[in-house]
Design brief:
single chain; mainly alpha; two-stranded antiparallel sheet; rod-shaped
Length: 439
């Protein structure tokens, strides 16, 4: 027996070797271990707290043998302890629990998967420690269907932007001022209006001398043009022809082309195609066409805006600006490239023939007017894309990223006055205490 140890009391169990603390029946727990709260599945219910065990604050050895506490068949109770009433269970024992009439309602233990509905947040003390970290990592991952919808709406947005810019370019070309720049060279070089005016110049001047204040009708030009005699008398043949061509262009734009202008003769299949192009341009350049083109701009513009909003809904963070910039550039790039290629390689100046140079000049003029909208859209898309790229780079650089084992790689560069570096942290074993280095 160790010095200072007390002899065992007869009739009482020996104290636990770990000390005088209380332990439930069964193997003693290890150091630092605690029992989890009891959970009794149905149909048995949960017993009362501390049933058959000492209450909080009660100390001392708990007798667990049968017949203890004044019951028959056992030793006498310790001095000062009253005898137990008849039928009272002995300390340290638990009688069988009665089975209830019906099984109690089942419940999930706190923290168990499924114990909380999806819309309810699990308390932090009941969730695992790594759950918030993994949740933050997985929250940034987008599902595949979001990316698919983003691309679908982005392509539709780019197509609507292309159609909007195309109709906007044609709307500008068919305006009164732009139409005059396109139609006047065609009437001058592809029709015989100027030739007929020069042929009738002397006759017109003689009529103007007889009646200076009267309006004289210009014959053989296909449209009804009348000019005062004083004006005819003051103009040369070339100036009078230009005045008549300007008036003819105004009437064709206001009333539409009825194919009444005397066209020159085409020689060959290429000239016939060029002549048909000139006639088509004259027939489309009018006030009615200009008013009609306004509604497609509104319709496709609203569609581009609607699908663009849906594209942004399925984008995340700075990807919204990137998606918007790419959609605008994709919608404007095709039209800009096509018009520039046409001006440089297809509608060349100086082509041989009568109608080819006229048609190419008209197409170049129309292309140079329409390409402005595509260039503006390209610039706007580039700005939006640049903003998205810069924002994404700044956001990525601003995130706090801790490189693992940084202090293990280069502990020599620790700040002066900082925490001391433990031996062996630089990857080289510390042999100061080695037997072979001792003197």
């Amino acid at each position: 027996m160790r010095p200072g140890a007390q002899p065992p009391v007869p009739g009482l169990p020996p104290k636990h070797p770990e000390g005088a603390g209380f332990f439930p029946p069964g193997p003693a727990p290890g150091q630092g271990y605690f029992y989890p709260p009891p959970w009794y599945p149905g149909p048995f219910g949960m017993p009362g707290p501390y049933y058959g065990y000492p209450q909080p604050g009660q100390t001392g050895q708990i007798p667990i043998g049968p017949g203890v506490g004044g019951q028959p068949g056992g030793p006498a109770a310790p001095p000062g302890q009253p005898p137990l009433p008849p039928g009272m269970p002995e300390p340290g024992t638990m009688p069988p629990q009665p089975v209830p009439f019906g099984p109690p309602p089942g419940f999930m233990p706190p923290g168990y998967p499924g114990a909380y509905p999806p819309e309810m947040q699990v308390p932090m003390e009941l969730s695992s420690l790594e759950e918030p970290e993994f949740e933050s990592l997985t929250s940034a991952e987008s599902s595949h269907w979001r990316g698919d919808f983003k691309w679908v709406f982005g392509i539709i947005t780019a197509l609507c932007i292309f159609l909007t810019l195309s109709f906007a370019g044609m709307y500008r070309v068919t305006g009164p001022g732009a139409a005059k720049q396109v139609m006047t060279p065609i009437i001058t070089n592809a029709t015989q209006v100027k030739k007929f005016v020069k042929d009738n110049y002397q006759e017109l001047r003689s009529k103007a001398r007889k009646s200076k204040s009267a309006k004289i009708f210009i014959p053989d030009i296909g449209v009804s043009v009348s000019i005062e005699g004083t004006v005819i008398s003051s103009l040369s043949s070339d100036d009078l022809a230009d005045r008549v061509i300007t008036e003819a262009q105004r009437q064709v734009y206001q009333q539409g082309y009825k194919q009444s202008l005397p066209m020159k003769t085409a020689q060959g299949a290429g000239e016939e195609r060029a002549k048909a192009t000139c006639v088509t341009i004259l027939s489309k350049m009018n006030k009615s066409t200009h008013s009609t083109l306004f509604w497609p701009i509104i319709i496709f513009g609203v569609l581009a805006l609607a699908f663009g909003v849906l594209m942004l809904v399925f984008s995340r963070g700075w990807g919204k600006a990137l998606s918007a910039g790419l959609a605008i550039i994709a919608g404007a790039l095709v039209g800009s490239l096509w018009l520039r290629i046409g001006n440089q390689f297809i509608w060349k100046a100086g082509a041989a023939g009568t109608f080819k140079p006229v048609a190419n000049q008209a197409l170049r003029t129309m292309g140079s007017m329409a390409v402005v909208y595509f260039d503006i859209a390209l610039a706007a898309g580039a700005v939006v894309l640049l903003v998205g790229v810069i924002g994404a780079v700044i956001a990525r650089k601003s995130r706090e990223r801790v490189t693992p084992f940084t202090d293990l790689k280069r502990p020599e560069e620790a700040v002066v006055g900082g925490p001391p570096v433990e031996p062996g942290m630089n990857g080289i074993p510390d042999d100061h205490d080695s037997f072979f280095l001792q003197e």
